[in-house]
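In this supplementary section we document a worked example of the pipeline. Step one takes a protein sequence of length 483 as its only input; no multiple sequence alignment statistics are reported here. Step two produces a three-dimensional model, which step three serialises into structure tokens for compact storage. The input and output of this example are shown verbatim.
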Amino acid sequence: MTDSPDLTPAVPGSADVEPADSRLWGGRFASGPSPELTELSRSTHFDWRLAPYDLAGSRAHARVLHAAGLLSDEDYAAMTEGIAALDGDVRSGAFRPEPGDEDVHSALERGLMERLGADLGGRLRAGRSRNDQVATLFRAYLRDHARQVASLVRELVEAIAGQAERHLGAPMPGRTHLQHAQPVLLSHHLLAHAWPLVRDLDRLREWDARVGAESPYGSGALAGSSLGLDPEAVAADLGFTGSAANSIDGTSSRDFVSEFAFVTAQIGVDVSRLAEEIIIWNTKEFDFVTLHDGYSTGSSIMPQKKNPDIAELARGKAGRLIGNVSGLLATLKALPLAYNRDLQEDKEPVFDSIDTLEVLLPAFTGMVATLEFNTTRMAELAPQGFALATDIAEWLVREGVPFRVAHELSGACVRVCEERGIELWDLSDEDFAAISPHLAGASEPGGVREVLTVAGSIASRDGRGGTAQARVTEQLAELRSRI
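The serialised model returned by step three reads:
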């Protein structure tokens, strides 16, 4: 086997300086790592997205090194210029990781030394470790993308609220166990899918506040720094409100990652529940919705098909998001303090969760916003399946009948209807009277027949959280105030 080629570039203008080793840990080793170890250790294929955050950390770190007297004014000025130049090259794509770079940190240190020379470029490493670097920049990256995910969730909530507003007053069959239960307003049902997403927004805000209060920069490898640096200053520079109180916890804790993964999984689950209903509603048997052509697909063999692919993909990707948090927790469950290399596996699951939601949510929002509802079909089905039986029982309660008795009498009405193949409103006044004297005079003013309409049933549910139109209108305003 031939030796691995030396992929480390020479430092420009430094002929008397040994080429910089892009590894950050090789001083005590007599030989370089084996090709197999190099391949296993390399992480630039997924952690390169952290490069802008790593460079932001380097700028903040250079400032505290200067403040501590460890960089002269001239060195600090040259250092900041070098970091800025490298940042520009990273963003333009002119600087990229090379096969010899182990991770984003070593690649950027190599880039800085190429621009500044090994002596000045190497000074930036003082007082920090890859452990506190990655713990901090990973937090910063997730905070930024949490805001992006929150913005996309907010747009979905607004799309749902828009449909609810457009269909105020339209009834539909409310279901439990997928069986007809009671009539509700379509708007009420749609908003029931919006509220979980609003809670997801709350979770993201609360998560951000917790994560933002604890920048690990300054924790070093695990024990902190002896160089008189100021972790609070670095934290403020990077947009944090405070620094970690415990350096071991700062470098080794990843509960912020697992919590973020959970929130993304919960968003996926909440989206998937609406997706499942849209899939069902789009069937010929339900015929509740029509998908916009731009947000549906066809079949390669059946020309009549119009498939709810976005909803199906949302349902499938929810499983993927759940898998990401499950795998991450399995990685974390038995790690001793402090840092362990297992934590290289903490990034890809949440990177995947972010990428999944950032491509899924815009498509799903577009599908929801362009749905056409067959409100005539929904209204026809709203009272069917004896959905007004509870209204009979509650009418009896208002007449002074104990609910236990009222429930039995309402059930008796349903039984008679089932035997005859009719609906509750088809019962005659004589039928009601025969079932119970409490139901006599069904057609008289204030009689039980007055509650045997969808409009009457919905209007009667006028307590907070109910499906009456006045309450749904208030609910819509309350929801919008929360987003």
